[in-house]
Design a protein that fits this description.
binds fe (iii) ion; mainly beta; 3 helices; 5-stranded antiparallel β-sheet; single chain; binds 4-hydroxy-3-methoxybenzaldehyde
Length: about 500
């Protein structure tokens, strides 16, 4: 058998085409760096001891289609190591099958986001997973996740890629969410894959993994229609699959079209199932078309579950338009706001859910104190857009210039930090001040994009007084392309890994 011949580049050198997706803070960074002792202002808290990992889609090559969307670049993992008031930095590309094949060819072979019909013939059937969306640390393993593929395991210190991780054969779904949920008391991880029986399939595979990463429960379900199920929520008693009308279409894919489009004609369907339940126990609760990428958390009181997220009246990503009816992106509808959905599992299947909008600003990247995940949360944090910055001009994750602290019991924002002009935030992570600190008491770490120098800072904020601004600012001599999600891992856990 001979290996398929690898296509060679048509010109010497390489450049990215002049497209918005390759400019501004979306300009590919592509740097694998080791930086010892980052320069800092302020006092870096000495009790911060561990690793802050963050992942970014960072295209190694210009996409062969000539354009791209922000979800499609190769995963670049970044690590900030905190020890005794000092911070070092390391970044490495995740060595996915996709990246290895493309490096060998010195060009892009995989085409449009989640559309294998746009790939070069030599990579047919090869893994398209870009390992670019989120980072999870569970059962001593560091995993990089992308919802169209299985996790990739990474060495916690060298950031070398170990390879695809299927939980010792426990996960048969070819897809695995970028947003697993963890019960901090039991150590269980809850996860799922959607489009789990192939491109555009309605199938969902749901997994419960014990504290050692062993699959202990598996359920296969069918959603009412195929949609992007980017995030989900788990409570003490239930699991909820939010099906919202960002939809796909196999014929559109075969014609080389985009994987996702907004479909305003469909309803939102919340699938609620006991968390160790079976497929026949799922009940679907309906409501108007809504879109949310992310949820803070959910908790149940008896059969009533409260689901808190950043919810919009329509898909907030302009690149998912025109919609399936030909409608154009409307910035006034694509505003994610802190919103509570309430659903009662005792109500019959097919009933509605309640919705309460809690806060007016555009918010994204909701987070809670992980120590209460699946239980009752009272405090949330989120990136927000505040009018006045030159990068505001609308909504979107590229324009977050503030971090909010929200108290769900008081139903109001109880803290906010607004960046100086010419700065925007990437997603923050929360680090508790100590193991026994009260909920939400600690630090927020967030990369800040300085649009004057086009370099990144890492801001360290104290949640006890967000408005006071950073207690310390780390100055990187690098521009880090807009990242997605991250995770904080305390040093004593890293050593186990
Ligand atoms: C998101 C990101 C993705 C993706 C699907 O932030 C959704 C949302 C970086 O990739 O594939
Ligand atoms: Fe996400």
């Amino acid at each position: 058998m001979t290996a398929p011949s690898t296509p060679s580049p048509s010109r010497t050198g390489m450049r990215f085409p002049d497209q918005p997706i390759y400019s501004g803070w979306d300009t590919p960074s592509r740097v694998e760096a080791d930086l010892f002792e980052i320069l800092a202002d302020g006092e870096i808290p000495r009790d911060l001891c561990g690793r802050y990992y963050q992942i970014a889609p960072d295209p190694a090559f210009p996409n062969r289609t000539g354009d791209d969307i922000p979800f499609n670049g190769d995963g670049m993992l970044r690590m900030f190591t905190f020890a005794d008031g000092h911070v070092d930095y390391r970044s490495r590309y995740v060595r996915t099958e996709k990246l290895k094949l493309e490096r060998a060819a010195r060009r892009s072979l995989f085409g449009a986001y989640r559309n294998p019909y746009t790939d070069h013939v030599t990579v047919a059937g090869r893994s398209r997973g870009a390992a670019n969306t989120s980072v999870a640390f569970h059962a001593g393993k560091l995993l990089v996740l992308k919802e169209d593929a299985r996790p990739t395991r990474i060495d916690t210190d060298s950031l070398e890629t170990d390879g695809v991780w299927d939980f010792d054969g426990g996960v048969s779904s070819p897809t695995f969410t970028a947003h697993p949920r963890v019960d901090p008391v039991t150590g269980e991880m809850f996860a799922f894959g959607f489009e789990a029986k192939g491109l555009a399939s309605r199938d969902i595979a749901y997994y419960v993994l014990d504290a050692h990463g062993k699959v202990v429960h598996e359920v296969w379900l069918e959603a009412p229609y195929t949609s992007m199920i980017h995030d989900f929520v788990v409570t003490q008693d239930y699991v909820i699959f939010p099906v919202m009308p960002t939809t796909t279409d196999l014929d559109r894919l075969k014609a080389g079209g985009p994987h996702w489009k907004w479909d305003p004609s469909k309803e939102t369907c919340l699938g609620v199932m006991p968390r160790y339940g079976t497929a026949d126990q799922i009940r679907w609760y309906r409501g108007p078309a809504r879109w949310a990428y992310h949820f803070f958390n959910a908790y149940n009181e008896g059969t009533t579950t409260h689901i808190d997220g950043c919810v919009a009246e329509a898909q907030a990503a302009p690149f998912m338009y025109p919609d399936t009816l030909g409608g154009q992106y409307d910035a006034t509808k694509g505003v994610n706001r802190i919103t509570r959905w309430t659903v009662d599992y005792a109500a019959d299947d097919g009933k509605g859910f309640e919705e309460q909008v809690l806060q007016p600003e555009f918010t994204e990247f909701p987070l809670i104190d992980d120590r209460v995940e699946t239980g009752r949360h009272s405090i949330g944090f989120a990136g927000a857009c505040v009018i006045g910055d030159e990068h505001k001009g609308g909504n979107g994750i590229g324009r977050l210039n503030s971090i909010l602290r929200y108290e769900f019991d008081k139903q109001q924002a109880t803290g906010q930090y607004v960046l100086p002009e010419h700065f925007t935030f990437q997603e923050p992570v929360f680090v508790p001040r100590s193991d026994d600190a009260s909920e939400g008491d600690g630090y927020l770490l967030a990369l800040a994009n300085n649009w004057t120098t086009m370099l990144n800072d890492l801001f360290i904020l104290d949640t006890a007084d967000l408005a006071a601004g950073p207690v310390a600012t780390l100055h990187l001599p690098l521009r880090l392309r807009s990242g997605i999600h991250g995770a904080w891992v305390p040093e004593h856990l890293v050593q186990v890994g």
